[in-house]
Specification:
The structure holds two protein chains of two kinds. By secondary structure, chain A is mainly α. Chain A has six helices and no strands. In chain A, α1 runs antiparallel to α2 (30-50) and α2 runs antiparallel to α3 (54-79). The radius of gyration of chain A is 21 Å and the shape is globular. Chain B is mainly α. Chain B has helices at 2-21, 25-50, 56-86. The longest helix of chain B has 31 residues, at 56-86. Chain B is elongated and about 55 Å long. Chain B is built from three helices and no strands. Classes of the chains: A mainly alpha, B mainly alpha.
Chain lengths: 173, 99
């Protein structure tokens, strides 16, 4: 019963992701494109929940849907002009893009369906083996094997550099 | 598992399509977000199905989310600055380096 429910939810989320991402890149108005991107990110958080990565889903919601989307919407509002949505598409470029996309999806799908992954097709592997927050915290803050304090610190320095760089770039001269 | 990978590859190539066709800098940034997001789905799907006793893929997804947040912040700062200089964020009209 739970299996079927998971499957149905997965197909709904997959359809939402596919449709909303196509709309996000084809929509002429930027604000609508940002809203479709929000839908994609929410459905991605749903997929993380389906995979039992609750912490990752919460991070996705708070960082992407809470932070990046606000940045996008402010940037769109700051940089929108009147003639913004009359962005004419180059026909040749659209054709090249569609060809590249369909060829890529076809090749990747073929390879993925052909390859035998080592989990043996066992779909019941998704039990309720939720990773608790204590383990994640230990892995982020430890220095031993399978622990990531160094990359965590590098990431914090990257974020600091980003904040300073953003202020320096965007300030008025 | 294959179906998860197909969904994320659809997302990836829709992002590639948007990156090729759109000429607005913010739209190109949205396409990049789609690409990064599909890669993070792939990390966590591989982790959950192939190595469910580890959590390296999930941590990689976490770091990827943080890095893409940083990248987006800097890119939006640059885009706002470009808009201030060129009064436009269409890449076809941004053709002067120094005014």
């Amino acid at each position: 019963m739970g299996e079927t429910a998971n499957l149905v939810i997965f197909y709904i989320l997959g359809a939402v992701i596919a449709a909303a991402s196509i709309l996000a890149v084809t929509s002429r108005r930027m604000l609508r494109a940002a809203t479709y991107l929000l839908v994609v990110l929410l459905a991605t958080a749903g997929i993380y929940l389906l995979l039992n990565y609750h912490f990752l889903a919460v991070v996705q919601l708070s960082v992407y849907a809470g932070g990046i989307l606000i940045l996008f919407i402010f940037a769109i509002l700051l940089t929108s002009l009147r003639g913004d949505r009359t962005e004419p598409h180059d026909k040749r470029r659209v054709f090249a893009g569609i060809a590249a996309g369909i060829a890529g999806i076809a090749i990747i799908s073929f390879v993925v369906m052909k390859h035998k992954f080592l989990y043996g097709g066992n779909t019941t592997i998704l039990g309720d083996q939720e990773i608790n927050a204590k383990e994640i915290g230990n892995a982020l803050m430890g220095t031993g094997k399978y622990q990531y304090l160094l990359s965590f610190e590098a990431l914090s320095i990257l974020l600091l550099a980003c904040a300073i760089g953003g202020i320096l770039i965007a300030r008025k001269r | 598992m294959e179906h998860y990978l197909i969904v994320s590859s659809i997302m990836f190539f829709v992002g590639v399509y948007g990156f090729i066709t759109r000429r607005n800098l913010l739209a190109m940034l949205i396409s990049i977000e789609l690409i990064l997001n599909s890669v993070e789905i792939n990390f966590s799907v591989f982790n959950r199905y192939l190595y469910p006793e580890h959590m390296e893929g999930m941590l990689f997804s976490l770091f990827g989310i943080a890095i893409s947040a940083a990248e987006t912040a800097v890119a939006i700062a640059i885009i706002i600055n470009v808009f201030r200089v060129a009064k436009n964020i269409d890449v076809r009209h941004i053709d002067k380096l120094n005014h």
